[in-house]
């Protein structure tokens, strides 16, 4: 487990690992770094992967945060254009869900067939399968999570904010 430093200003989590540090910024809109954004919005946990996979310390911060907040949310909405967890990170999140004894519904939006293949492999380790959706199927993904209109609106606003922070297109092309 990495060491953590909580600066007085409270604007970031500074995590140290293997002699290197990685800053994970916190804001009212969740947590974000240059590769990864996550946070709870209403009753949904929203996660957006950038173009590179998250560092181990970022992934652990996300999984640990989700474990603490899982009882207060209906589900998890994930967006990625192709980046995602490595095998060790997939095991870390699978172990968390096993410890909890119950996995939240998870809807993953992606245009990538590679990511859908990774999810298939991850589903072998999970107590409840992740459901994948093409980026054009956002209404279906939100429906899968059983979100009401206010929750949908909150999740979509967070998704758009995180995508913008990571420099991803706000709307899928085509």
Structure, briefly:
The protein has helices spanning 56-69, 87-100, 113-123, 138-144, 149-165; strands at 3-5, 12-17, 20-27, 30-32, 36-41, 44-49, 75-79, 106-109, 131-133. The protein is of the alpha/beta class. The chain has a 9-stranded mixed β-sheet, sandwiched between helices.
Topology diagram in text:
Layout: E1 3-5, E2 12-17, E3 20-27, E4 30-32, E5 36-41, E6 44-49, H1 56-69, E7 75-79, H2 87-100, E8 106-109, H3 113-123, E9 131-133, H4 138-144, H5 149-165
Q: How would you characterize the overall build of this protein?
A:
- This protein is of the alpha/beta class and 174 residues long.
- It has 5 helices and 9 strands; from the N terminus they run E-E-E-E-E-E-H-E-H-E-H-E-H-H.
- A 9-stranded mixed beta sheet has the order 1-2-3-4-5-6-7-8-9, sandwiched between helices.
- Strand 7, helix 2 (87-100) and strand 8 (106-109) form a beta-alpha-beta unit.
- It starts with a strand and ends in a 9-residue tail after the last helix.
- The model is unreliable at 1-29 (pLDDT under 50).
Primary descriptors:
174 residues; 36% helix; globular; 5 helices; single chain
Taken in chain order, the helices and strands follow as EEEEEEHEHEHEHH
Q: Biggest sheet, in brief?
A: 9 strands, mixed
Q: Give the strand tally.
A: 9
Class by alpha and beta content: alpha/beta
Low-confidence runs (pLDDT<50, min 5 residues)?
Answer: 1-29
Q: Approximately how much helix is present in the residues?
A: 25-40%
- Compute the average pLDDT: 78
Number of helices: 5
- Strands side by side in the biggest sheet: 1-2-3-4-5-6-7-8-9
């Amino acid at each position: 487990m990495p060491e953590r430093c909580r600066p007085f200003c409270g604007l970031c989590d500074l995590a140290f690992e293997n002699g290197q540090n990685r800053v994970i910024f916190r804001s009212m809109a969740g947590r974000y770094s240059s590769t990864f954004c996550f946070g709870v919005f209403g009753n949904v946990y929203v996660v957006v992967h950038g173009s590179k996979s998250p560092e181990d310390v970022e992934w652990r911060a996300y999984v640990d945060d989700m474990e603490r907040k899982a009882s207060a949310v209906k589900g998890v909405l994930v967006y990625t254009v192709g980046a995602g967890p490595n095998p060790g990170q997939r095991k870390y999140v699978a172990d968390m869900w096993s410890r909890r004894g119950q996995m939240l519904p998870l809807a993953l939006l992606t245009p990538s067939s590679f990511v859908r293949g990774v999810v298939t492999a991850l589903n072998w380790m999970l107590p409840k399968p992740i459901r994948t959706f093409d980026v054009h199927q956002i209404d279906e993904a939100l429906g899968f999570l059983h979100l009401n209109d206010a929750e949908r609106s909150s999740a979509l606003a967070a998704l758009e904010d995180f995508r913008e922070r990571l420099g991803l297109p706000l709307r899928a092309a085509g």
